[in-house]
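Risk mitigation, structural track. In case the binding assays with alpha-D-galactopyranose fail to produce interpretable data, a predicted complex structure has been prepared as a fallback.
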Amino acid sequence: MHPKELVTSTFRQRFGKEPAFVALAPGRVNILGEHVDFNDGFVLPAAIDRATYIAFAPAASQRSTLVAADFGEEASFTLASIPTKTNADGAPLAEWAYYPAGVAWALTEADLAVPAIDAVFASNVPQGSGLSSSASIEMAFAVAWQTLSAVEGTGWVLPPMQRALLGQKAENKYVGVNCGIMDQFASACGVADKLLLLDCRSLEWQTLPVPEDVAIVIADTSVRRKLTDGEYNKRRQACEDAVKILSQHLPNVRALRDVSVDDFNRLSDQLPGVVEKRARHVVEEIERSRRAIPLLEQGKIREFGQIMNECHASLRDLYEVSIPELNVMVEIAQSLPGCLGARLTGAGFGGCTANLVEKSVAEAFATELATQYERKTGLKPEIYICKASDGARLM
Ligand code: GLA
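Fallback model:
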């Protein structure tokens, strides 16, 4: 069942009434600029045509009841119980509930009303697949609470980027993942048929067209990861360590964004081995995105794709967030006709690859990639041609 139907029918069953509203917030695929958002770099994601859907209505009491239709589970909390990650009865919240509870917490911190909600949500963004299922849950709930605040007359309306920042705060301070802004941004601000170019320092952004004859193909290795595992936070810590050391030599350095490749090469022996590798990925990835964007604008999509391939090698060898299955998926893709560029997308450690493919052969590419991947790994992948989509909204 499509999640939109699932949330509506589950809402009726659980709450014995019609949902007042249905909203959705998409996942995202990132095309270039990986693990650079928290280093003030540039990212180039797109919101995808898979989303978290939420059916909701104001609750009758102070207690919010959240149903995760995909898991057949529910959680309930009142505002008072949010910061301790417990249900209204004191039992621990399930992990999936951290994301909406975190958003409620972040809204409260910002002095914005969080009306009690009856909500059912479900998603066709696979969890742990590098497509930002958690950001899509956060942004769906942010739209839901914003909608209810208007209904209850305590109205607040935030621009999408502000909702994204609150989602990031929820993730950083409540869930405990030190992520950057990219995922919530893409989910909140997505534009149909466009790539989104975000400067993660100034938060200025613009759209770039997906070239007419190019398809974005997402290939899911079917291997799942957990972002909360700590590896992500360790990588971020290494970047911060590098900034601390490099800024002793380059006083204007606030983030790895401020370090040129030449300066980095000159000073790299000051950094401990692992820190050097992680930071080198970031410094070079930011330089790659500076080179790549004009190529995209000029329609030089082959050269652009080549840079995506370089990005994958760097994530594999320097940043070390790839896994064998992602490498196999990328190697096969890069060997197939019509493939312009292929790399892992998102945090890594499992999940999906992003591929730019000539549209005319995209179907054949997807079929052949699936066949060869399954032959080599014994795993059944899911491969689909994705359509860049609008961001979080009421339906
Ligand atoms: C995760 C994080 C993002 C970003 C990517 C890697 O998706 O949530 O902020 O850092 O990893 O680019």
